[in-house]
Write a structure and sequence with these properties.
Rossmann fold, two-stranded antiparallel ribbon, eight-stranded mixed sheet
């Protein structure tokens, strides 16, 4: 049986596709998430990202996210640029509309190949027809280095807070099914409007 999150500021450890199935349909105001990029990532210190070597979780996870979101709401999802076709197919199959694209410019290169890779990217995904934000944010934003002390691909809260402020109603519930170091939860707690944060961790998809 589905249930509503009775306690906010909650972290649930496990397979997010299974855990999301226990939550009530249309109970979440905004999803902000940074899933594995399906790139077999390995940091300079040898750390890896769980389930970054397969896409078995991709479609079921975003189908679950779509079900949990309230009508006319948003999801922001980071993704791997070289796996964009897989992510876009999963988002569209779930029912999302691509509503915008975000680029986070780095002052450093995280790696180098044919080019120096100096940005992260995310899509703004719409369920239904959400209202436009009162003040639109730029689609290119700077990203400071987090230090990656808690997670090999840790995102700084400084880039997450503007997203929550723009796309989540005041007092809304924020969900991150792939919460990693918990940056989304911290950003939700500190964003203007005292938004509540609720998160599922990726666990063992």
């Amino acid at each position: 049986m589905n249930r509503t999150l009775r306690s906010l500021d909650t972290v649930m450890l496990g397979d997010c596709t299974a855990l999301m199935g226990r939550l009530e349909t249309a109970s979440i105001d905004f999803v902000l998430t940074d899933p594995p990029y399906i790139t077999r990532y390995r940091a300079r210190d040898g750390r890896t990202v769980i389930n970054d070597d397969n896409d078995r979780w991709l479609k079921p996870a975003f189908a679950g996210i779509f079900r949990l979101l309230k009508p006319d709401s948003f999801c922001v999802s980071f993704y791997g640029w070289n796996q964009a076709d897989r992510f876009i197919a999963a988002w569209r199959e779930a029912g999302f509309r691509l509503a915008g694209h975000l680029v986070f410019a780095k002052g450093y290169a995280s790696s180098a190949g044919f080019m120096r890779y100096q940005h992260e990217q995310a899509y703004l995904l719409a369920k239904g027809a959400p209202a436009r934000p009162a003040a639109a944010i730029a689609d290119v934003l700077p990203i400071p280095y987090s230090g990656n002390r808690l997670h090999p691909t840790q995102k700084p809260t400084a880039i997450l807070e503007p997203l929550i402020g723009a796309f989540c109603p005041a007092g809304g519930i924020v969900l991150d099914p792939f919460c990693g170091s918990g940056s989304t939860l911290v950003a939700a707690r500190t964003t203007v409007g005292a938004l509540s944060a609720s998160s599922l961790t990726q666990g063992i998809i």
